[in-house]
Amino acid sequence: MRPAPRVQAAIELLDAIIDAASNKGAPADRLISDYFRQRRYAGSKDRRAVRELVYGAIRICGPVPKSGRAAMLKLAETDPSLIELFDGTEHAPQPISDKEEPAEGGTAPEWLVERLAASGIDQDQANALLDRAPLDLRVNTIKADRSALDLPIEGEHLAAEQAIRLPAGTSVEQWEQWEQWRDGLIEVQDHGSQLVCAAFGAKPGEVVIDLCAGAGGKSLALAAAMQNSGQLVASDIDRGRLSKLEPRARRAGAGMIQTLLLNPGKELDMLAEWHGKADGVLVDAPCSGTGTWRRNPESRWRLDTPELKRLSATQDSLLDMATQLVKPGGRIGFVTCSLLDEEGAARVDAFLERHPGWSAEEPSMPAGNSHGRGKRLTPSQDGTDGFFVAILRSA
Questions:
Q1: Over 60: is that where the pLDDT of 173 sits?
Q2: Structural domain of 149
Q3: Which tens digit of pLDDT belongs to each residue from 104-133?
Q4: Of the listed 61, 197, 212, 337, which one is catalytic?
Q5: Alpha carbon separation from 108 to 28, 32, 302 (Å, rounded)
Q6: Is the residue at 111 inside a domain?
Q7: What's the rounded Cα separation, in Å, for the pair 316 and 392?
Q8: What is the DSSP letter of 161?
Q9: pTM of this structure
Q10: What gap in Å lies between CA 191 and CA 381, rounded to an integer?
Q11: 2, 41, 68, 153: most buried, per Cβ within 10 A?
């Protein structure tokens, strides 16, 4: 593909992403994969270049753009060489008219910028949410240790005990071929995610429930912290995501993990075996993902006030559910990858009002700042995804 057709391809993809964001459709990465699956003629350099254009345009537009073309025109303000590619030749964008206006820039839709500011995220911190994320690894201590691991690419040792950061631009295709990956010695996991798992303090021999396990990234980290000893139940209502955990656990040698698919509305019934028996329950709750915009920048176009209220209610419900599973003196680790107080500090305050016998302990982490009755990690200060984490202790 020539440069001009690449721009046109990016515009077409942006149109699809904007439509999906407005109608709660597929995420951008899936739309991009589907697009190129139908266009086998596009080589790896073409795919990479188009992706760069697409995500560059997404990051630079604050509110939802009117069109992919308007988004690309906004990106062209930072790269004038793109303007020359709107030349109307075959498979290229049509020339720019005098009446066309680029999309609006900014960090996010105005209402969301205001919510972030009210949660203590100033403009500089908000801007950092749209930087490109690095590639972080966690060394799996069931099989290896960071001090003795030999990787093909030298990485930076981070604050989390087994965290390694690889140079910016390290490709997924590259590390997936490493024997360390194939043999389960390393997992891809953001440094912030590793820090909040460590703050939960899972220990060998404990009974731990990962209530919202998803594809199991945090479950695997907990299993390593527990030295593959004890009982770890990884549960979720999403069959597709949970099904990915079992092969990952086998590769990691985490034989202690038991997966449990839950039926929505019947979660406590299906977890009856563990009522009042868990040393700890990790509630990595569904949230808006405002802390993960570096990886999913179009997600800020999907959020609205009703969705935020629904997510907050879900977080309350999950926390209440977790109280039924924890034994006296046990703990709940509450985690959201959000920087909005509605999904962090305010949820903890509401929980403690509903459960007066419980208390909050400040999480022990070598990064982050105290926020409310928990701690918060941010890309601008900590170089991680954005997280809120609190430790709630039963009487």
A1: no
A2: 135-188
A3: 999 999 999 999 999 999 999 999 999 999
A4: 337
A5: 17, 22, 11
A6: no
A7: 13
A8: T
A9: 0.93
A10: 13
A11: 68
